[in-house]
Amino acid sequence: MQVIEQQLLSYHKVYIFVECAEGALRENGCRLNPMNSWITLTCPSCGAKISVTDDAARYRCDYCGNEHLIAPQSKPGVAAQAQPIRPEQPVPASVRIEQDGLSARLIQRWFSWKYIPMAFFCVAWDAFLCFWYSMALGGDAPWIMIVFPIAHLAVGVGLTYSTLCGFVNRTVLEVNRDELAVWFEPLPWPGEKKIKTGELKQLYCKEKVTRGENSTTRTYQLYAVTRDNKETRLLDRLDSPDVALFFEQQLEYWLKITDQPVVGEYRSE
Fold first, then answer.
1. Does the first or last residue of the chain, that is N or C, have fewer Cβ atoms within 10 Å of its Cβ?
2. Over the stretch 117-154, which tens digit does the pLDDT of each residue have?
3. What gap in Å lies between CA 209 and CA 207, rounded to an integer?
4. What is the end-to-end Cα distance of the chain in Å, rounded?
5. The whole model's pTM is what?
6. Distance CA 261, CA 204 (A)
7. Which structural domain range is residue 36 located in?
């Protein structure tokens, strides 16, 4: 009788061990299957070697605790590659989401505090030009006084219009069953685009660095990659990487596009 009790106790311990192992595998996105084989991956975060089943979609590193996705194998026998899961981007303060059942829209207002000093500069610039032309056209001024400031007049008009757009305009990205559309309102602005949703393959962000003599400016761009591997710039000169990354994240979610790394893309730390 004592021998039987010891055997039953051993079977019970084995059963508990299997249950714990199965629970751990489920936590890492694996299924316990006796036909599965095991593969060894290197954690991108800490470099540790991790063994997972070959049907796992994701896993959590036992050493650093970070969770990673496993890219599908492109060919039999090719080792799977682990990819860090990107953190979810919160909705930026300048962006709001609208949905009506037929379409979904991301709306970003342009206004920021940088337009306040630009408005004062435009007022001073335009006031000087008005004073200049009132003198040139009000008397017998030589023609050079009228022709010379034309370039300055063009700059003033461009600066004034862009500053006015900065105060009142907004960017709209709309997704419906047929297309992804980008436009600007209420004042016209170049760069409106439309792409068929069925042609979209991937979305990603780029960082653009402009270096001057005394300063460096960083802006961000949103790109779309179509199924023929052509790139289309959807948005340019975004001031914040958070806005660009949120646009990418939300559009991919609505379009059911799995995020994949793209060479040269910007990724938050």
1. C
2. 999 999 999 999 998 888 877 777 777 877 888 899 99
3. 6
4. 63
5. 0.66
6. 8
7. 2-84
